[in-house]
Amino acid sequence: MEVESTPLPKKMTTDSMAPPPPQSSRKKRGRNICLVVIAVILGLVLLMVILGLTVFKAKHPVTTVNSVALKDLNLDLNFAKLGVYLNLTLDVNLSIKNPNKVGFQYTNSSALLNYRGQVVGEAPIPASKISADQTATMNLTLTILADRLISNSKLYSDVISGTLPLSTFTRISGKVHILKIIKIHVVSYTTCDINIAVQKRSVTNQTCQYKTKL
What we know:
Largest sheet: 7 strands, antiparallel
Structural class: alpha+beta
Order of helices and strands: HHEEEEEEEHEEE
Shape: rod-shaped
């Protein structure tokens, strides 16, 4: 007669006998990880702010008119009608310096030629980018549009006196990208007052003023 054997109970291991980790421990670990991540993010933000206010602090571009030369001058006086037909062209050498540690990108602009507050000529300045700590040089040609001076009564007396007062105006507008995150808009203005000696056909005086705005 066979005796039915009763299976022996399995030996319980230490792992199976260990109680599960308390819920509070898991929450505490998750909280610590979250705090570490927040601290790292705040540290990176603080570092970027410090760099933005020191090394990468935005500086305005410097626009300088290096020279203004008279390229062409033709005029015809009408003594009977006290009128003048004037054709004048100026060569302007302009430089833009970017003092920033990052690139400066400016939009399309133009240089204006003024006669006694009236715009009489214009030259385009195409959009471009200037690398960090670099200076870009450009040559502009400004030509007086004769039809804009027909109605100006002071032109005849200025030509007769031998001195023609003109002024040039340029406005360079663009953005400086700091750490590819912060964009700062900067503008540079340049105004130059010049005198043209009609008989000598040359520029006799040049006074420039520079203004920048962040």
